[in-house]
Amino acid sequence: MGTASQQMAEFVAGLRFDDLPPDVVAAARRHMLDAVGVALAASALGAGGPVIEMTRSWAGARESSVIGYDFGAPAPWAALANGTLTHALDYDDTHVESVVHPSAFVVPAAIAVGEEIGASGRDIVTAAVAGYEVATRIGAAAPGRFHVRGQHTTGLCGTFGAAAVAGRLWGLTSDEIAQAFGIAGSQSSGLFAYLSDGSETKRLHAGWAAHGGIVAADLARRGFTGPSTIFEGPHGLFDAFLAGEEPDRARLVRGLGTEWETTRIAIKPYPACHFVHAFMDAGIEAGVKWADIDEIVCSIAPPAIGIVAEPRAPRLHPATTYQAQFSLPFAVASAIVGGRDALEYFGDDARADRRVLTLAERVHHEPDTTLPFPKTYGGKLRVYTRGGRSIEIEELVNRGHPDRPLSDEELASKFLKNARMRLETRAARRALTKLQRIDQIDKIENLTSALQTP
User: Fold this and answer.
1) Which of 66, 115, 386, 399 is most buried, judging by how many CB atoms fall within 10 Å of its CB?
2) pTM exceeds 0.90 for this model
Protein backbone atom coordinates (compact mmCIF):
# COMPACT_ATOMS: atom_id res chain seq x y z
CA MET A 1 0.00 0.00 0.00
CA GLY A 2 2.91 2.37 0.70
CA THR A 3 3.20 5.50 2.82
CA ALA A 4 0.58 8.25 2.78
CA SER A 5 2.66 10.35 0.40
CA GLN A 6 3.04 7.40 -1.97
CA GLN A 7 -0.71 6.75 -1.94
CA MET A 8 -1.49 10.39 -2.60
CA ALA A 9 1.12 10.46 -5.34
CA GLU A 10 -0.52 7.49 -7.05
CA PHE A 11 -3.85 9.33 -6.93
CA VAL A 12 -2.35 12.49 -8.43
CA ALA A 13 -0.41 10.70 -11.16
CA GLY A 14 -3.45 8.67 -12.21
CA LEU A 15 -6.08 11.42 -12.05
CA ARG A 16 -7.82 12.23 -15.34
CA PHE A 17 -10.44 14.83 -16.18
CA ASP A 18 -12.94 12.10 -17.02
CA ASP A 19 -12.55 10.79 -13.45
CA LEU A 20 -14.01 14.00 -12.01
CA PRO A 21 -17.72 14.08 -11.12
CA PRO A 22 -19.64 17.06 -12.56
CA ASP A 23 -20.05 18.74 -9.15
CA VAL A 24 -16.28 18.60 -8.61
CA VAL A 25 -15.61 20.22 -11.99
CA ALA A 26 -18.23 22.86 -11.23
CA ALA A 27 -16.66 23.56 -7.83
CA ALA A 28 -13.19 23.88 -9.35
CA ARG A 29 -14.49 26.36 -11.92
CA ARG A 30 -16.09 28.47 -9.17
CA HIS A 31 -12.95 28.57 -7.07
CA MET A 32 -10.69 29.41 -9.98
CA LEU A 33 -13.06 32.22 -10.96
CA ASP A 34 -13.06 33.58 -7.43
CA ALA A 35 -9.28 33.39 -7.06
CA VAL A 36 -8.57 35.22 -10.31
CA GLY A 37 -11.02 37.98 -9.45
CA VAL A 38 -9.44 38.52 -6.06
CA ALA A 39 -5.97 38.62 -7.64
CA LEU A 40 -7.12 41.27 -10.13
CA ALA A 41 -8.48 43.42 -7.30
CA ALA A 42 -5.24 43.04 -5.36
CA SER A 43 -3.21 44.09 -8.40
CA ALA A 44 -5.39 47.19 -8.77
CA LEU A 45 -4.81 48.13 -5.15
CA GLY A 46 -1.05 47.57 -5.34
CA ALA A 47 -1.23 44.87 -2.69
CA GLY A 48 1.95 42.82 -2.40
CA GLY A 49 3.79 45.47 -4.41
CA PRO A 50 7.29 44.56 -3.21
CA VAL A 51 6.75 40.94 -4.26
CA ILE A 52 5.58 42.07 -7.70
CA GLU A 53 8.59 44.34 -8.15
CA MET A 54 10.97 41.63 -6.98
CA THR A 55 9.41 39.19 -9.45
CA ARG A 56 9.69 41.75 -12.24
CA SER A 57 13.37 42.31 -11.45
CA TRP A 58 14.07 38.56 -11.51
CA ALA A 59 11.70 37.84 -14.38
CA GLY A 60 13.97 36.30 -17.04
CA ALA A 61 12.05 34.21 -19.55
CA ARG A 62 8.39 35.16 -19.97
CA GLU A 63 6.90 31.70 -19.45
CA SER A 64 3.91 32.56 -17.29
CA SER A 65 1.77 35.66 -16.76
CA VAL A 66 1.52 37.81 -13.65
CA ILE A 67 -2.19 38.55 -13.20
CA GLY A 68 -3.17 42.16 -13.72
CA TYR A 69 0.28 43.22 -14.92
CA ASP A 70 2.06 43.55 -18.23
CA PHE A 71 4.91 41.10 -17.69
CA GLY A 72 5.60 37.43 -17.20
CA ALA A 73 8.21 35.31 -15.45
CA PRO A 74 9.39 31.71 -15.12
CA ALA A 75 6.65 29.57 -13.61
CA PRO A 76 7.97 29.45 -10.01
CA TRP A 77 8.28 33.24 -9.84
CA ALA A 78 4.95 33.93 -11.53
CA ALA A 79 3.33 31.57 -9.03
CA LEU A 80 5.00 33.46 -6.17
CA ALA A 81 3.59 36.74 -7.45
CA ASN A 82 0.12 35.42 -8.24
CA GLY A 83 -0.16 33.48 -4.98
CA THR A 84 0.71 36.61 -3.04
CA LEU A 85 -1.87 38.61 -5.01
CA THR A 86 -4.58 35.99 -4.51
CA HIS A 87 -4.09 35.95 -0.75
CA ALA A 88 -3.22 39.62 -0.27
CA LEU A 89 -6.73 40.95 0.42
CA ASP A 90 -7.84 38.00 2.58
CA TYR A 91 -10.74 37.65 0.19
CA ASP A 92 -9.81 34.17 -1.07
CA ASP A 93 -11.57 30.93 -0.23
CA THR A 94 -11.12 28.56 2.72
CA HIS A 95 -11.47 24.80 3.03
CA VAL A 96 -13.48 24.78 6.21
CA GLU A 97 -12.32 21.66 8.05
CA SER A 98 -8.62 22.11 7.36
CA VAL A 99 -8.64 25.94 7.65
CA VAL A 100 -6.54 26.10 4.49
CA HIS A 101 -6.84 28.79 1.79
CA PRO A 102 -6.32 26.39 -1.12
CA SER A 103 -7.03 28.46 -4.21
CA ALA A 104 -4.32 30.94 -3.24
CA PHE A 105 -1.64 28.37 -4.08
CA VAL A 106 -3.49 25.87 -6.27
CA VAL A 107 -4.68 28.35 -8.92
CA PRO A 108 -1.37 30.26 -9.24
CA ALA A 109 0.57 27.00 -9.55
CA ALA A 110 -1.88 25.64 -12.13
CA ILE A 111 -1.85 28.79 -14.24
CA ALA A 112 1.94 29.21 -14.05
CA VAL A 113 2.90 25.66 -15.02
CA GLY A 114 -0.06 25.31 -17.34
CA GLU A 115 0.92 28.38 -19.31
CA GLU A 116 4.54 27.22 -19.47
CA ILE A 117 3.56 23.94 -21.15
CA GLY A 118 0.54 25.16 -23.13
CA ALA A 119 -1.95 23.11 -21.12
CA SER A 120 -5.66 22.93 -21.93
CA GLY A 121 -8.41 24.05 -19.59
CA ARG A 122 -9.24 20.41 -18.82
CA ASP A 123 -5.60 19.83 -17.83
CA ILE A 124 -5.72 22.88 -15.55
CA VAL A 125 -8.93 21.79 -13.85
CA THR A 126 -7.61 18.25 -13.31
CA ALA A 127 -4.36 19.50 -11.79
CA ALA A 128 -6.22 22.00 -9.61
CA VAL A 129 -8.46 19.27 -8.21
CA ALA A 130 -5.37 17.17 -7.44
CA GLY A 131 -3.92 20.10 -5.51
CA TYR A 132 -7.16 20.77 -3.62
CA GLU A 133 -7.53 17.13 -2.61
CA VAL A 134 -3.96 16.78 -1.36
CA ALA A 135 -3.56 20.04 0.58
CA THR A 136 -6.94 19.99 2.28
CA ARG A 137 -6.52 16.44 3.53
CA ILE A 138 -3.19 17.33 5.14
CA GLY A 139 -4.79 20.19 7.04
CA ALA A 140 -7.86 18.12 7.91
CA ALA A 141 -5.65 15.50 9.57
CA ALA A 142 -5.07 18.07 12.33
CA PRO A 143 -7.99 20.51 12.04
CA GLY A 144 -7.28 23.82 13.76
CA ARG A 145 -4.28 22.42 15.60
CA PHE A 146 -1.62 24.19 13.57
CA HIS A 147 -3.37 27.49 14.18
CA VAL A 148 -3.36 27.23 17.96
CA ARG A 149 0.42 26.81 17.77
CA GLY A 150 0.83 29.99 15.76
CA GLN A 151 1.38 28.20 12.44
CA HIS A 152 -0.42 29.14 9.22
CA THR A 153 -1.92 25.99 7.75
CA THR A 154 -2.00 27.50 4.26
CA GLY A 155 1.77 27.86 4.24
CA LEU A 156 2.37 24.45 5.77
CA CYS A 157 0.02 22.46 3.54
CA GLY A 158 0.18 24.61 0.43
CA THR A 159 3.58 23.42 -0.78
CA PHE A 160 2.21 19.88 -1.06
CA GLY A 161 -0.87 21.04 -2.95
CA ALA A 162 1.21 23.08 -5.39
CA ALA A 163 3.61 20.15 -5.85
CA ALA A 164 0.61 17.98 -6.75
CA VAL A 165 -0.56 20.57 -9.28
CA ALA A 166 2.84 20.86 -10.95
CA GLY A 167 3.45 17.12 -10.85
CA ARG A 168 0.12 16.40 -12.57
CA LEU A 169 0.69 19.02 -15.28
CA TRP A 170 4.25 17.92 -15.97
CA GLY A 171 3.14 14.28 -16.12
CA LEU A 172 5.44 13.08 -13.33
CA THR A 173 5.33 9.44 -12.29
CA SER A 174 3.85 8.53 -8.93
CA ASP A 175 7.35 7.94 -7.56
CA GLU A 176 8.48 11.38 -8.71
CA ILE A 177 5.41 13.02 -7.16
CA ALA A 178 6.08 11.19 -3.87
CA GLN A 179 9.63 12.54 -3.98
CA ALA A 180 8.20 16.01 -4.62
CA PHE A 181 6.03 15.71 -1.51
CA GLY A 182 9.09 14.77 0.52
CA ILE A 183 10.94 17.81 -0.81
CA ALA A 184 7.92 20.07 -0.24
CA GLY A 185 7.94 19.19 3.46
CA SER A 186 11.24 21.01 3.93
CA GLN A 187 9.71 24.15 2.43
CA SER A 188 6.54 24.22 4.54
CA SER A 189 6.42 27.43 6.54
CA GLY A 190 4.24 30.27 7.75
CA LEU A 191 3.90 31.89 11.18
CA PHE A 192 1.12 33.99 12.70
CA ALA A 193 3.62 36.52 14.06
CA TYR A 194 2.09 39.12 11.71
CA LEU A 195 -0.91 39.33 14.05
CA SER A 196 1.09 41.40 16.52
CA ASP A 197 1.48 44.38 14.19
CA GLY A 198 -0.55 43.72 11.04
CA SER A 199 2.53 43.32 8.83
CA GLU A 200 2.39 41.75 5.39
CA THR A 201 4.02 38.34 5.81
CA LYS A 202 0.75 36.39 5.68
CA ARG A 203 0.26 37.55 2.09
CA LEU A 204 3.51 35.86 1.17
CA HIS A 205 2.62 32.48 2.69
CA ALA A 206 0.39 31.39 -0.18
CA GLY A 207 2.75 32.73 -2.83
CA TRP A 208 5.70 31.00 -1.22
CA ALA A 209 3.72 27.75 -1.03
CA ALA A 210 2.88 27.95 -4.74
CA HIS A 211 6.51 28.72 -5.55
CA GLY A 212 7.89 26.03 -3.24
CA GLY A 213 5.58 23.34 -4.58
CA ILE A 214 6.64 24.01 -8.16
CA VAL A 215 10.30 23.98 -7.14
CA ALA A 216 9.77 20.67 -5.31
CA ALA A 217 8.13 19.05 -8.34
CA ASP A 218 10.80 20.41 -10.69
CA LEU A 219 13.58 19.06 -8.48
CA ALA A 220 11.85 15.67 -8.28
CA ARG A 221 11.55 15.37 -12.06
CA ARG A 222 15.31 16.04 -12.27
CA GLY A 223 16.09 13.20 -9.86
CA PHE A 224 16.27 14.99 -6.49
CA THR A 225 14.86 12.90 -3.64
CA GLY A 226 12.80 13.56 -0.54
CA PRO A 227 11.66 11.40 2.39
CA SER A 228 8.75 9.09 1.63
CA THR A 229 7.72 9.23 5.29
CA ILE A 230 7.14 13.00 5.30
CA PHE A 231 3.71 12.45 6.90
CA GLU A 232 4.60 9.51 9.16
CA GLY A 233 7.79 10.74 10.80
CA PRO A 234 9.88 10.66 12.81
CA HIS A 235 10.75 14.30 12.11
CA GLY A 236 8.05 14.51 9.44
CA LEU A 237 5.52 17.32 9.02
CA PHE A 238 3.21 16.40 11.88
CA ASP A 239 5.99 15.29 14.20
CA ALA A 240 7.75 18.62 13.73
CA PHE A 241 4.80 21.01 13.84
CA LEU A 242 2.45 19.29 16.31
CA ALA A 243 5.11 18.69 18.96
CA GLY A 244 4.19 15.06 19.51
CA GLU A 245 0.40 15.43 19.30
CA GLU A 246 -0.93 12.68 17.06
CA PRO A 247 -2.90 13.67 13.94
CA ASP A 248 -5.58 11.60 12.24
CA ARG A 249 -3.18 10.10 9.69
CA ALA A 250 -5.90 7.98 8.12
CA ARG A 251 -7.59 11.24 7.11
CA LEU A 252 -4.82 11.84 4.57
CA VAL A 253 -6.07 9.15 2.19
CA ARG A 254 -9.55 8.30 3.47
CA GLY A 255 -11.99 8.51 0.57
CA LEU A 256 -9.31 9.73 -1.81
CA GLY A 257 -10.85 9.65 -5.28
CA THR A 258 -14.39 8.98 -4.01
CA GLU A 259 -15.01 11.75 -1.46
CA TRP A 260 -14.08 15.12 -2.92
CA GLU A 261 -12.81 17.90 -0.66
CA THR A 262 -12.92 20.27 -3.64
CA THR A 263 -16.66 20.57 -3.01
CA ARG A 264 -16.12 21.52 0.65
CA ILE A 265 -14.44 24.89 0.15
CA ALA A 266 -16.11 28.11 1.32
CA ILE A 267 -16.10 31.32 -0.72
CA LYS A 268 -15.77 34.59 1.20
CA PRO A 269 -18.41 37.33 1.06
CA TYR A 270 -16.08 39.67 3.00
CA PRO A 271 -12.33 40.42 2.64
CA ALA A 272 -11.40 39.41 6.17
CA CYS A 273 -10.55 36.41 8.30
CA HIS A 274 -13.29 33.84 7.83
CA PHE A 275 -13.78 33.63 11.60
CA VAL A 276 -15.48 37.07 11.71
CA HIS A 277 -17.93 36.68 8.82
CA ALA A 278 -20.82 35.14 10.74
CA PHE A 279 -20.64 37.94 13.29
CA MET A 280 -20.63 40.61 10.58
CA ASP A 281 -23.76 39.13 9.03
CA ALA A 282 -25.39 38.77 12.44
CA GLY A 283 -24.64 42.39 13.29
CA ILE A 284 -26.24 43.57 10.06
CA GLU A 285 -29.23 41.26 10.59
CA ALA A 286 -29.84 42.70 14.06
CA GLY A 287 -30.94 45.91 12.33
CA VAL A 288 -29.92 48.32 15.10
CA LYS A 289 -28.29 51.69 14.41
CA TRP A 290 -24.78 51.89 15.80
CA ALA A 291 -25.54 54.84 18.10
CA ASP A 292 -28.39 52.90 19.76
CA ILE A 293 -26.15 50.00 20.80
CA ASP A 294 -24.92 49.77 24.37
CA GLU A 295 -23.01 46.47 24.08
CA ILE A 296 -22.48 43.54 21.75
CA VAL A 297 -21.34 40.12 22.95
CA CYS A 298 -19.99 37.62 20.41
CA SER A 299 -19.95 33.94 21.36
CA ILE A 300 -17.01 32.52 19.44
CA ALA A 301 -15.21 29.17 19.19
CA PRO A 302 -12.17 29.12 21.53
CA PRO A 303 -9.60 28.24 18.81
CA ALA A 304 -10.56 31.41 16.91
CA ILE A 305 -10.13 33.79 19.86
CA GLY A 306 -6.37 34.15 19.56
CA ILE A 307 -6.70 34.89 15.85
CA VAL A 308 -9.40 37.59 15.85
CA ALA A 309 -10.24 38.63 19.42
CA GLU A 310 -7.21 38.62 21.73
CA PRO A 311 -5.23 40.55 22.69
CA ARG A 312 -8.11 43.01 22.64
CA ALA A 313 -6.44 46.43 22.81
CA PRO A 314 -4.75 46.53 19.36
CA ARG A 315 -7.91 45.20 17.73
CA LEU A 316 -9.97 48.20 18.86
CA HIS A 317 -7.87 50.67 16.89
CA PRO A 318 -6.14 48.62 14.16
CA ALA A 319 -3.14 50.37 12.68
CA THR A 320 -3.28 48.58 9.32
CA THR A 321 -5.86 47.00 7.07
CA TYR A 322 -4.48 43.59 7.95
CA GLN A 323 -4.98 44.20 11.66
CA ALA A 324 -8.54 45.30 10.94
CA GLN A 325 -9.24 42.16 8.92
CA PHE A 326 -8.28 40.08 11.96
CA SER A 327 -10.23 42.12 14.49
CA LEU A 328 -13.61 40.78 15.61
CA PRO A 329 -14.73 44.03 17.29
CA PHE A 330 -13.69 46.18 14.35
CA ALA A 331 -15.27 43.86 11.76
CA VAL A 332 -18.61 43.78 13.57
CA ALA A 333 -18.60 47.55 14.09
CA SER A 334 -17.68 48.28 10.47
CA ALA A 335 -20.45 45.99 9.18
CA ILE A 336 -23.09 47.60 11.41
CA VAL A 337 -22.06 51.17 10.54
CA GLY A 338 -22.10 50.07 6.88
CA GLY A 339 -22.23 52.40 3.90
CA ARG A 340 -19.16 50.89 2.20
CA ASP A 341 -18.41 48.27 -0.41
CA ALA A 342 -16.86 45.04 0.85
CA LEU A 343 -13.27 46.00 0.01
CA GLU A 344 -13.66 49.29 1.90
CA TYR A 345 -14.80 47.76 5.20
CA PHE A 346 -11.23 47.58 6.50
CA GLY A 347 -9.49 50.36 4.58
CA ASP A 348 -8.07 53.69 5.68
CA ASP A 349 -11.43 55.46 5.64
CA ALA A 350 -13.10 52.85 7.84
CA ARG A 351 -10.18 52.78 10.25
CA ALA A 352 -10.46 56.55 10.69
CA ASP A 353 -14.25 56.49 11.13
CA ARG A 354 -15.09 57.55 14.69
CA ARG A 355 -18.42 55.74 14.51
CA VAL A 356 -16.71 52.43 13.76
CA LEU A 357 -14.03 52.95 16.41
CA THR A 358 -16.57 53.99 19.05
CA LEU A 359 -18.78 50.97 18.38
CA ALA A 360 -15.80 48.59 18.30
CA GLU A 361 -15.13 49.43 21.94
CA ARG A 362 -18.63 48.17 22.78
CA VAL A 363 -18.04 44.77 21.12
CA HIS A 364 -16.89 41.99 23.46
CA HIS A 365 -16.49 38.25 23.16
CA GLU A 366 -16.91 35.06 25.15
CA PRO A 367 -15.80 31.50 24.40
CA ASP A 368 -18.45 29.04 23.28
CA THR A 369 -17.42 25.39 23.16
CA THR A 370 -20.80 24.31 21.72
CA LEU A 371 -20.10 25.80 18.29
CA PRO A 372 -19.27 23.22 15.58
CA PHE A 373 -15.83 24.68 14.80
CA PRO A 374 -14.05 23.93 12.49
CA LYS A 375 -16.87 22.24 10.57
CA THR A 376 -18.37 25.70 10.27
CA TYR A 377 -17.16 29.16 11.28
CA GLY A 378 -20.43 30.15 12.88
CA GLY A 379 -21.17 32.19 15.96
CA LYS A 380 -23.79 33.80 18.16
CA LEU A 381 -24.27 37.51 18.74
CA ARG A 382 -26.23 39.41 21.39
CA VAL A 383 -27.00 43.10 20.99
CA TYR A 384 -28.02 45.16 24.03
CA THR A 385 -29.57 48.50 23.10
CA ARG A 386 -29.61 51.74 25.04
CA GLY A 387 -33.39 51.39 25.17
CA GLY A 388 -33.16 48.13 27.11
CA ARG A 389 -33.79 45.66 24.30
CA SER A 390 -31.82 42.45 23.84
CA ILE A 391 -31.49 40.88 20.38
CA GLU A 392 -29.94 37.46 19.82
CA ILE A 393 -28.79 36.24 16.41
CA GLU A 394 -27.32 32.83 15.59
CA GLU A 395 -25.29 32.30 12.44
CA LEU A 396 -24.17 28.72 12.98
CA VAL A 397 -23.26 28.16 9.33
CA ASN A 398 -21.31 31.05 7.87
CA ARG A 399 -22.52 32.47 4.55
CA GLY A 400 -20.42 31.12 1.67
CA HIS A 401 -19.88 27.78 3.46
CA PRO A 402 -20.47 24.79 1.15
CA ASP A 403 -23.66 24.06 3.12
CA ARG A 404 -24.77 27.68 2.57
CA PRO A 405 -23.00 28.63 -0.66
CA LEU A 406 -22.97 31.89 -2.53
CA SER A 407 -25.09 31.54 -5.65
CA ASP A 408 -23.49 31.57 -9.08
CA GLU A 409 -24.96 35.03 -9.54
CA GLU A 410 -23.44 36.29 -6.29
CA LEU A 411 -20.08 34.83 -7.24
CA ALA A 412 -20.20 36.42 -10.69
CA SER A 413 -21.08 39.76 -9.11
CA LYS A 414 -18.12 39.47 -6.73
CA PHE A 415 -15.81 38.62 -9.62
CA LEU A 416 -16.95 41.54 -11.78
CA LYS A 417 -16.60 44.04 -8.93
CA ASN A 418 -13.08 42.82 -8.32
CA ALA A 419 -12.06 42.45 -11.97
CA ARG A 420 -13.38 45.88 -12.98
CA MET A 421 -10.93 47.44 -10.57
CA ARG A 422 -8.17 46.38 -12.99
CA LEU A 423 -9.85 45.66 -16.33
CA GLU A 424 -12.32 47.58 -18.47
CA THR A 425 -15.89 46.35 -18.06
CA ARG A 426 -15.98 44.58 -21.41
CA ALA A 427 -12.66 42.85 -20.71
CA ALA A 428 -13.84 41.82 -17.23
CA ARG A 429 -16.96 40.24 -18.72
CA ARG A 430 -14.87 38.37 -21.31
CA ALA A 431 -12.65 37.04 -18.53
CA LEU A 432 -15.74 35.98 -16.58
CA THR A 433 -17.05 33.98 -19.53
CA LYS A 434 -13.69 32.30 -20.13
CA LEU A 435 -13.35 31.29 -16.47
CA GLN A 436 -16.91 29.98 -16.29
CA ARG A 437 -16.02 27.71 -19.23
CA ILE A 438 -12.38 27.09 -18.40
CA ASP A 439 -12.62 23.35 -19.05
CA GLN A 440 -13.56 24.17 -22.66
CA ILE A 441 -10.43 26.29 -23.35
CA ASP A 442 -7.91 24.71 -25.74
CA LYS A 443 -4.91 26.55 -24.28
CA ILE A 444 -4.68 28.39 -20.99
CA GLU A 445 -3.00 31.33 -22.77
CA ASN A 446 -6.44 32.14 -24.18
CA LEU A 447 -7.41 32.99 -20.60
CA THR A 448 -4.24 34.49 -19.19
CA SER A 449 -3.90 36.90 -22.12
CA ALA A 450 -7.22 38.39 -21.00
CA LEU A 451 -5.97 38.92 -17.45
CA GLN A 452 -3.02 41.19 -18.19
CA THR A 453 -3.06 44.95 -18.55
CA PRO A 454 -1.61 46.64 -21.64
Assistant:
1) 66
2) yes
